[in-house]
Amino acid sequence: MKLLEPNLEIKDAFYEYINEWKQYNEKIVPTTLRKVNGDYEDYVERWSKESRGMVREGWVANTTFFLVNDDDYIVGSCNMRHELNDKLLEIGGHVGYGVRPTERGKGYATVMLKKCLEHLRTLGVKKALVTCNNENAGSKKVILKNGGIQDESFVEEDGTIVNRFWINLEGELI
């Protein structure tokens, strides 16, 4: 399994991935993929620019990755924020990730988060913030397996409780 940035060669695999989320009537995670309803090529270019820090006001540099197997079958996707702003300190953190519905429970999210943490370390991030909704027991397990230490939770305006975890990137990753 490897992390792969969006590219034109995996366009068909990308749409297959997105369509599976829709078939299961689930919100696509990470949210950066929810807005793809136009030209895939334009989105690949946008994601590339965002990775290089060319972002809209209020956003931070971020990189979107797909977790793929040797056949470029997309198992999951993640969005890694290179730094945190005030909003990301409360909800979102450094990494958002999701695994396609038919591939859950196989350890892919744990692998994907670890690979994102390795990338963050190369950017000089010393501690990564990863968040998940309180009712998402699976994501909480993934974060804890990657060394997450729970911090204060955050309550959104709608009452949703967001758990916040810090992961030290200075030592060896779990």
UniProtKB/TrEMBL annotation:
Pfam families, alphabetized: Acetyltransf_3
Single GO molecular function: acyltransferase activity, transferring groups other than amino-acyl groups
InterPro entries documented for this protein: Acyl_CoA_acyltransferase, GNAT_dom
Keyword Transferase among UniProt keywords: yes
Residue span, N-acetyltransferase domain: 8-170
Database matches in Gene3D superfamilies: 3.40.630.30
Keywords (A to Z) from UniProt: Transferase
TM annotation in the entry: none
Record's protein name: Putative acetyltransferase
Organism of origin: Aquisalibacillus elongatus
